């Protein structure tokens, strides 16, 4: 098309000029013609001749330009061809011989079918009859059956157990909280410290990749004798771990066994002190002592008492008989505990280890185990049999020391007596760590007045179901991360920088890959709000993002304004406390499970519980106090202190039957949530003529 256009441009004007005016030159003008032109230059004939000459000159310039461009291209092409390397005769002969050889081989080649995909390996199986290869472990790592964190890899069911254990941590903190005088500003309860970053990364990964609709399998299903699935991947008698990932696999086994053993009372894992030190390094003893189901021993002889059969009549046979009777009466089947020892203990006392292996759930030796199978474990958790088969095995959970310690933190039970929040020293926090109580902000952030500056109203509701409203109408926020940004900035009116936002919303992911994602999220949110109302909802100054002061009305800011008024109220304090309750329609970002949200949500809820408890204490009679306590229990039905007060108030009113019903319902609620009976302690006072017993 370009060539046709150039040819038309070159040939078109001459054809038109020749057809209309003839050739450009018909001879030189005569003297008479020159005299007439000087006397009257602007005649029709002279103007026609002048325009014709000008047209021919323009065409000549165009033809000259095209000619020069064509010659330049030709010169460059000739120069390139001149320097083009051509094969020598010897090279041409060698190329011909190689081509003939390839064609001859391909003509006689036997066509082979494509390789079949590797079959999955049965957990703990190295059957030589199965057609499996070492690529099975790689296929397992590519499947959606695990969660990769910065310090290792966890199977999906273990990650789900970690998430459930983290939820239990916050339920226990809610249960143990005791209301304070309302509106204490600057208060930082020690138990509101956020959970480790590894836990947040696991929860975030589960949220991004939810489980299939069929749900996760029971951790005890598919394993012999109710054995946790973490041990079901091993051979029935256990195995030895060698290779670069042996210690990492030992840490993974430690975490997964303790997690799976939470549903069963008693000891679920026995480990020698030497192995525990090699796995966790400088982990504090206070952490390991609070791990439920963990027994630390000095050697195999001491460990044998945890595996003695009840019928043997040795050692603690009487105690085992009592435990067996209790388990039979309560229909609880407790699997045999696992044992983790090192290679020195296994080779130094093989007879005792063989006796223990008979009754132990699984024996794991960190090193070679001559009496059993030995698995080679790499850093990614892939296993292979070091015996004659050399087959690939299942992928094991692998963790480094920091990650294992972080995950053990959510398993460890807290101290039974919570620290006094008033007497405890406040803990230093960063600018964006979820602080339990927002400090008083400058006046430009005060939410008391409705935002001005125009006729449009922009309102952000984060208490209850999060919503962004323009003139009272909800605005659709397409991205979940955008709603997270809005709630997070509402909880931090002073703003947050890029690093803090990405660490909170996408924990555990490489930060270098998240800056663009954050920019896209904020740009989409700004565009949607600007299109809806023409306002700018987020201000970006000095690398800090914040909700635009004076333009956004936030209900959380109004709530904290009410809390500050209640804290400074000199007269009519009950009215100020009632204002705190009225400003709280529901939990912060109700229904959302963002990993950074729990400390801020719990801090906000505690402010409301403080107001309910204060109004109950100031009530004129027991009936009004009971009403306020019941209202507080609707805000947090897991708080033990409010239940204790409500039960004592019912007893004071003489309604013992309702008090017993409330106590039993509370115990059932804790049990349904996964908090064991030993934690469900509800202390009640002793009333005249009716002694109450703490419920366990």
UniProtKB/TrEMBL annotation:
Gene3D superfamilies: Tetratricopeptide repeat domain, Winged helix-like DNA-binding domain superfamily/Winged helix DNA-binding domain. The keyword Transcription regulation applies. It comes from the Bacteria. One of its GO terms (molecular function) is DNA binding. Residues 554-682 form the Bacterial transcriptional activator domain. Keywords: Membrane, Transcription, Transcription regulation, Transmembrane, Transmembrane helix. GO terms for biological process: regulation of DNA-templated transcription. Residues 207-230 are annotated as: Disordered. The chain crosses the membrane at residues 51-72. PANTHER family: TRANSCRIPTIONAL REGULATOR REDD (PTHR35807:SF1), TRANSCRIPTIONAL REGULATOR REDD-RELATED (PTHR35807). This is Transcriptional activator domain-containing protein. It comes from Micromonospora avicenniae.
């Amino acid at each position: 098309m370009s060539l046709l256009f150039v040819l038309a441009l070159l040939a078109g004007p001459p054809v038109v000029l020749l057809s209309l005016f003839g050739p450009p030159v018909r001879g030189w003008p005569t003297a008479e013609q020159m005299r007439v032109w000087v006397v009257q230059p602007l005649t029709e004939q002279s103007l026609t001749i002048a325009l014709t000459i000008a047209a021919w000159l323009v065409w000549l310039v165009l033809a000259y330009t095209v000619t020069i461009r064509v010659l330049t291209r030709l010169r460059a092409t000739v120069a390139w061809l001149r320097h083009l390397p051509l094969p020598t005769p010897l090279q041409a002969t060698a190329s011909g011989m190689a081509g003939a050889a390839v064609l001859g081989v391909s003509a006689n080649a036997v066509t082979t079918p494509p390789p079949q995909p590797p079959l999955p390996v049965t957990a703990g199986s190295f059957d030589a009859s199965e057609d499996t290869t070492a690529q099975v472990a790689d296929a397992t790592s590519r499947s959606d059956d695990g969660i990769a964190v910065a310090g290792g890899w966890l199977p999906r069911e273990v990650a789900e157990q970690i998430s459930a254990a983290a939820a239990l941590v916050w339920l226990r903190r809610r249960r143990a909280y005791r209301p304070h005088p309302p509106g204490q500003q600057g208060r930082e309860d020690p138990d509101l410290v956020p959970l480790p970053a590894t836990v947040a990364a696991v929860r975030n990964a589960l949220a991004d990749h939810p489980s299939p609709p069929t749900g996760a399998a029971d951790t005890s299903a598919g394993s012999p004798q109710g054995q946790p699935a973490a041990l079901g991947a091993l051979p029935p008698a256990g195995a030895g771990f060698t290779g670069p990932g042996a210690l990492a696999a030992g840490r993974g086994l430690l975490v997964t066994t303790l997690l799976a053993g939470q549903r069963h009372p008693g000891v679920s894992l026995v480990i020698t002190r030497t192995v525990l030190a090699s796995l966790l390094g400088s982990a504090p003893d206070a952490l390991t002592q609070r791990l439920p189901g963990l027994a630390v021993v000095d050697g195999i002889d001491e460990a044998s008492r945890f595996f003695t059969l009840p019928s043997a009549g040795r050692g603690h046979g009487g105690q085992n008989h009592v435990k067996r009777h209790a388990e039979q009466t309560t229909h609880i089947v407790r699997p045999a505990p696992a044992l983790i020892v090192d290679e020195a203990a296994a080779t130094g006392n093989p007879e005792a280890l063989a006796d223990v292996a008979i009754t132990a759930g699984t024996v794991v030796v960190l090193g070679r185990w001559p009496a059993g199978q030995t698995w080679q474990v790499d850093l990614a958790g892939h296993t292979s049999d070091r015996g004659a088969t050399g087959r690939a095995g299942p992928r094991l959970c692998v963790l480094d020391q920091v990650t294992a310690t972080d995950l053990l933190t959510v398993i460890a039970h807290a101290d039974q007596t919570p620290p006094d929040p008033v007497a405890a020293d406040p803990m230093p926090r960063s600018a964006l760590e979820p602080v339990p109580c927002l400090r008083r902000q400058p006046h430009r952030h005060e939410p008391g007045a409705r935002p001005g500056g125009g006729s449009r109203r922009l309102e952000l509701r984060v208490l209850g179901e999060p919503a962004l409203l323009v003139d009272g109408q909800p605005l659709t926020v397409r991205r979940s991360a955008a709603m997270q940004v809005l709630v997070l900035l509402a909880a931090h009116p002073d703003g947050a920088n890029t690093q803090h936002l990405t660490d909170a919303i996408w924990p555990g992911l490489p930060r270098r890959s998240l800056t663009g994602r954050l920019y896209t999220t904020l740009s989409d949110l700004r565009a949607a709000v600007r299109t809806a109302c023409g306002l700018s909802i987020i201000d970006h100054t000095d690398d800090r993002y914040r909700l635009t002061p004076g333009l956004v009305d936030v209900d959380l800011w109004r709530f904290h304004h009410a809390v500050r008024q209640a804290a400074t109220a000199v007269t009519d304090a009950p009215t100020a406390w009632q204002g705190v309750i009225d400003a709280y329609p529901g939990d912060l970002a109700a229904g959302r499970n963002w990993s950074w949200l729990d400390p801020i949500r719990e801090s906000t809820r505690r402010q409301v519980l403080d107001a309910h408890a204060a109004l109950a204490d100031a009530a004129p009679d027991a009936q009004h106090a009971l009403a306020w306590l019941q209202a507080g229990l609707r805000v947090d039905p897991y708080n033990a202190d409010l239940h204790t007060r409500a039960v004592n108030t019912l007893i004071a009113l003489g309604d013992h039957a309702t008090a017993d019903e409330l106590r039993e319902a509370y115990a059932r609620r804790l049990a349904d949530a996964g908090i064991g009976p030993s934690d469900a302690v509800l202390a009640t006072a002793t009333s005249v003529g009716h002694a109450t017993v703490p419920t366990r």
